[in-house]
Amino acid sequence: MSDTPLLKIEDLTAHHGAVCALDSVSIDVPERGLCAVLGANGAGKSTLLRTLTGLHPATSGRVTLDGEDITRLPAERAVTKGLAHVPEGGGVIVELTVEENLRLGGLWRARHDPETLAEVLDLFPPLVERRGKPAATLSGGERQMLAIGRALMARPRVLLLDEPSLGLAPMVTEQIFTLLGDLRDRTGLTVVLVEQNAAGALGVTDHGFVLNQGRVAAEGPSDDLLSDDRTRHAYLGF
Ligand code: ATP
Description:
The protein is α/β, with parallel strands linked by helices. The chain has helices spanning about 45-50, 75-80, 100-105, 115-125, 125-130, 140-150, 170-185, 200-205, 220-225, 230-235, and strands spanning about 5-15, 20-30, 35-40, 60-65, 70, 85, 160, 190-195, 205-210, 215-220. Bound molecules: adenosine-5'-triphosphate.
């Protein structure tokens, strides 16, 4: 893992009207890093991901990807630069088949890319036999896999996930978290995992950042945060 961060967030500030949702947030994510962004409801986690991907405007601050300033790129340019965002709930289109959903994720690329489709399906065996079925027939965990697979179709350098555990049973959540670790190990992808399930997310990530009222209230190696009683009690609820 290189020491130079692949994704560098410096003093990022963003507002919703008068509400300051991100207040001078600085986060470094190294290449092949798997990092958790944690915090309670309203801490600013979703705003962070939406600001990184150009879906929400930054008030001030800077975001660089591999040294290139991407702070004010519109969302469609952010994805071509290598940021893929899996929104809360996944955003799978249930009327379309599994394969159609995956192909949508590849529309950013110049041409249909059967090699990437085959590679992505290879990462998610449960989706292979369902590729011709409507996404509505998938379980919650399979839909989350499909949402991740669709993001991977853009061949991102950084995958940003917003609460993939939402609405999933604990066992399925564990499978999805394990899958993220495997994905990083197999593909060399860099992953930012936004979660309210702090214990689960810290169990699979290398490094964690805790947001509280739009500020980074704590950060450190995930194992250290897991054993830090003060941080766990004050911000993580376990
Ligand atoms: P959750 O886990 O509930 O999604 P979060 O940590 O992702 O919470 P954000 O959704 O980023 O937090 O919200 C950060 C702050 O911005 C909160 O105070 C929230 O009320 C406010 N906020 C978020 N979206 C809007 C909006 N569309 N309009 C006004 N305020 C908003």
